[in-house]
Specification:
The protein is an alpha/beta fold and about 230 residues long. The chain contains 9 helices and 6 strands; from the N terminus they run ααβαβααββαβαβαα. Strand 5, helix 7 and strand 6 form a beta-alpha-beta unit.
């Protein structure tokens, strides 16, 4: 495991790979592969969120919990799926809120690379999962690594918006300094909870308004309808 394609993060995070917890995680993943278990996403995408969003460009952080565990879905960005894959229910609700909040009509894909390339860090707490077995890799070490990522953004970046959807993300983001950053909380966009306050939260417009107030560029939340260029650049 290495961060060769994420140079802005590498000086800070590469030392983590020598820590006992990451060595243990590496052995666990090797054992899973040796047992012929299918792991998502592909190892080339484990650190894709860091590769797509350099540390010095982070404007917004969205925290997810666990990669999608069905074939062809996960590619290293939370809530995002590969082109041509059915849009997951939570992302459907995210699109509903985008439309209600900013008037952005939903696109017919769930590929969020456009957000990541603008500085929206789409970070799952756990970066791998076993096929068909949600949360199978929780408690194996990824959480400590992604806590370090959040700590880095909190300490090294200025004026970042953290979108914490659901109790899991809110607990993980408890260390964020809300005097320097904007922390917005809402229920998870899952169909089980979206109606409890995610729908109607207005987080996308609030994020952009605050970024502008801090002298930063707002995020273009409108995803491209034509994915040809996005796929070429990913």
């Amino acid at each position: 495991m290495a961060l060769d394609n994420a140079p802005s993060w590498q000086p800070w995070l590469q030392p983590e790979f020598d820590q006992p917890y990451m060595q243990s995680l590496k052995r666990f993943l090797q054992a899973e592969k040796a047992a012929n278990k299918v792991i998502y996403p592909h190892s080339s995408h484990w650190f894709h969120a860091l590769e797509a969003t350099p540390l010095d460009r982070v404007r917004v952080v969205i925290l997810g919990q666990d990669p999608y565990h069905q074939p062809g879905q996960a590619h290293g960005l939370c809530f995002s799926v590969k082109p041509g894959v059915r849009i997951p229910p939570s992302l459907v609700n995210i699109y509903k809120e985008l439309q209600a909040d900013l008037g952005i009509a939903p696109v017919d894909h769930g590929y969020l690379e456009h957000w990541a390339r603008q500085g929206v860090l789409l970070l799952n707490a756990v970066l791998t999962v076993e096929q068909g077995n949600a949360n199978a890799h929780q408690g194996k070490g990824w959480e400590q690594f992604t806590d370090r990522i959040i700590q880095l953004v909190n300490e090294q970046c200025e004026h970042v918006v953290f979108l914490l959807w659901g109790s899991y993300a809110q607990k993980k983001g408890a260390c964020i300094d809300d005097r320097r950053h904007l922390v917005l909380k809402a229920p998870h966009p899952s169909p089980l909870s979206a109606h409890r306050g995610f729908l109607g939260c207005g987080h996308f417009s609030k994020a952009n308004q605050w970024l502008v107030e801090q002298g930063r560029e707002p995020v273009d939340w409108q995803l491209p309808v034509d994915l040809i260029e996005e796929k070429v650049n990913s």
